[in-house]
């Protein structure tokens, strides 16, 4: 499953017609090679988002290169790359994204984050970015705060100009149906996108759970595809 052919096979089984493929890197010197590959796999099924690292010298220039090659957004992972997203060094990236490209950003901690450890992607820091760049298209991943739902509900859920997605490894079912439904309704179902962190989590299992929630068919259709299609411009 960790291949282009593998994800496409899983998509066909799952009834998924398009997948966002998110690029992440450990080091600045990996960015160009990763993005060259992401650019190369674009087709009618896979929509890659570029990788970026805070240590890259010309971050805005790389965003520009991605745009010129048809890439519709980038993924930032403050926890993996140990940086605060509201650090002014990142502002040129957000300025270059403008109003047309999308920022998908890890929000929250890891399941294994120890007490007292630095949480670079705390929900309040994500919202600092949203407030500083209110016209930028932002998707705060993991319902706005992975394993930080209280903070996410306080800082992100219900805010007007940020979408959230439903990635929650190892399984969205760890969140009770009534809790998840309440979060979706509070934020507005039109601002919630389906996500899985595949191949860590099955697209079938997660979509089945969304389909089982006490939401309208229209709300479910939005979450399972139409919201992302409209927001990203697919």
UniProtKB/TrEMBL annotation:
One of its GO terms (biological process) is secondary metabolic process. GO terms for cellular component: cytoplasm. One of its GO terms (molecular function) is carboxy-lyase activity. The keyword Lyase applies. Keywords: Lyase. Coiled coil: none annotated. Pfam families: Amidohydro_2. Residues 42-234 form the Amidohydrolase-related domain. This is Amidohydrolase-related domain-containing protein. It comes from marine metagenome.
